[in-house]
């Protein structure tokens, strides 16, 4: 018997996480033309912050002096989250906010030197930044346990027993929708138009009075916050964070979703995220049903690569095309 | 009549090539000033220095009495100078109308904190939209408003770029070959519109142009550049009759 509720819930959660990361990349790449090849690093920061903050906070409340990585602490966290609903939920909310802020600060810090570079160099610098961060965290034990990772990050709904996943999926999809609505409102405005102008021709935008470097810094900061949010939500979903979860592959998953769905179109990005989530889940489901003479997970890479090539060749604007920015001015134009 | 732009001993070198060599001149308000000279004489470099795209090696630029040498382009724009490019540099994924909506100054909705709240910027946006539509009508581009900027013809692109600049309410426009590659009748139309913009909005124009035969009847005063230096200046009639200018353009026997 297949656990339908569990399957749907985890699909919704994975869709939400993909969506958040891709929306954040779409803000940078789709709207502003910033080729962020290090997207995963900012997601990782969010996950690390949530993991470490939660573990230290619970140890502090309980008054335990044991290392947060010890089996004893793991037990404490599991017990704590089942018994103390309000503190667990509070820690969840506070750590997500902290994840947004700290990831955003990382984005801002990286933007200072990186935005002086031309696009292709910027892409490489961000890719390298992500890898360096991963390798440091992997080899620095006190933050999230180095190569062993940090286990038992308590889900805010641990107390609900079998309803953990369904309840959590509701939270993630609500957060995703809120971010989507926020971005739609942010980008269907003179600000969205400004970002597209910088993307289309940065020099012309400067000559027309736009401080493009400052604006790109804002975008990198805001998008990194959103990526951090997705990382935090991921940490509470998997209840385990380890540096090696955040390999560049995740960045390119987001790139595939943006290109497949349609750059500079948030609805397209959600559609792309849905397609990739379903593909992902189907392959996983298939691997449980049929025995293949090879590792099924590699099928995923082959199919995703194929999708990327086919889309770029036949439909480079993606499934849903970019549309002009919608402001009240469009109404004025229609009456003419 | 007052002076709007003054350039003093401007010099710019690229490697071993002196692109602009000790150039000094000044421009009066509400005039249409021409800048001519053969390819590679330093005209575009001079424009780029004034607009803040390159810093000069030495020399100063004053705009309305204020020193603006080496300020970044957006600061130069704020003071009232807009430059157009030799190759039309529109925002090509956007519509003509959207292109016109980029330059207006002090857009409330361009600030990150205001953008998500439409009620804060909607009224201002409508005002700019009306300005844009009026200007599009004036430039006879209004039936192309909703078209992508890539769908315009070469001449329309030039016109669109001028119009886009005007949306930034400049007091001085630097136009780099506004009629290059445009059919003669359309080139005349473009210059006619420049004349009207000068009269309507009081904009001073400083224009690089090669096609003297079209240009002459619209321009008040001409500077001639050759090998980085201003070699001749005067009203159009004098310029066209000058043997020196003929020699520069047609190549005199040495």
Head-to-tail CA distance between termini of chain A: 62 Å
- Give the biggest sheet of chain A: none
Number of helices of chain B: 9
Largest interface (CB < 8 Å): A-B, 36 and 50 residues
The shape of chain B, in one word, is globular
DSSP helix count of chain A? 14
Number of strands of chain B: 10
User: How far is the first residue's CA from the last residue's CA of chain B?
Assistant: 41 Å
Low-confidence stretches of chain A: none
Give the low-confidence spans of chain B.
Answer: none
- Give me the oligomer status: heterodimer
Q: Share of helix among residues of chain A? A: over 70%
Structural class of chain B: alpha/beta
Q: Which structural class do you get from the secondary structure elements of chain A?
A: mainly alpha
Give a structural overview:
The complex is a heterodimer of chains A (336) and B (254). Chain A is mainly alpha-helical. Chain A has one domain. Helix content of chain A is 75%, strand content 0%. Chain A is globular. Chain A starts with a helix and ends with a helix. Chain B is α/β, with parallel strands linked by helices and 254 residues long. Chain B contains nine helices and ten strands. The N and C termini of chain B lie far apart (41 Å). The model of chain B has no long low-confidence stretch (mean pLDDT 90). The A-B interface holds A 182, 185-187, 189-194, 196-197, 199-201, 203-211, 218, 222, 264, 322, 324-325, 327-329, 332-333, 336 and B 51, 53, 72-74, 76-78, 82-83, 85, 89-95, 97-98, 101-103, 105, 107-112, 114-118, 121-122, 125-126, 128-130, 132-133, 142, 145-146, 164-165, 168.
